[in-house]
Specification:
Blueprint: E1 26-33, E2 42-49, E3 54-62, E4 71-78, E5 83-91, E6 103-107, E7 112-120, E8 126-133, E9 139-140, E10 144-145
Antiparallel strand pairs: 1-2, 3-4, 4-7, 5-6, 5-8, 8-9, 8-10
Length: about 150
């Protein structure tokens, strides 16, 4: 959004919403006040950075037999822009995908968690989530060492 809004007040104050560019972005605002009896406006500006988004993986519920030594993966997120994302489960074993499936994560709030149907269970190896679609994609989560 850009442009000027005439708030039409003669005294007092008003609040205007500012839609940010999403987590991790620096956003700017400029305010101009022009009194009818003066020839020029007064201007003030400011900026602020939002917190950087973060994603990480945790162990979920144990997988059913015959994969009982494995666990489902839970993807966690914080400081995310709400929206629908596409994710894939990955491992450090040759940087391959775990399974052939993509999953949808609907982030209805800026922080949350969702258990996925992919499972993993190799001691010493690492698993992570690739966010392949959605606001700000692509990016990878932090890794989990099993």
């Amino acid at each position: 959004w850009s442009g000027w809004s005439n708030v039409g007040i003669t005294s007092g104050s008003t609040n205007l919403g500012l839609a940010t560019s999403g987590p991790g972005a620096t956003n700017y605002i400029e305010v101009r006040v022009w009194a009818q009896d003066t020839g020029s406006p007064s201007t003030a500006s400011g900026s602020g950075a939002s917190y950087p988004r973060r994603s990480w993986v945790t162990k979920g519920a144990a997988a059913p037999a015959p994969n009982a030594s494995q666990n489902f993966l839970v993807v966690n997120w914080s400081e995310f822009q709400t929206g629908s994302y596409t994710v894939r489960c990955r491992t450090n074993r040759g940087d391959t995908y775990i399974g052939t499936y993509t999953y949808t994560v609907n982030a209805t709030s800026s922080s949350g968690a969702q258990q996925l149907l992919c499972r993993f269970g190799y001691p010493g190896d690492q698993a992570y989530i690739s966010w392949t679609g959605g606001p700000g994609a692509p990016f990878d989560s932090d890794t989990l060492t099993w």
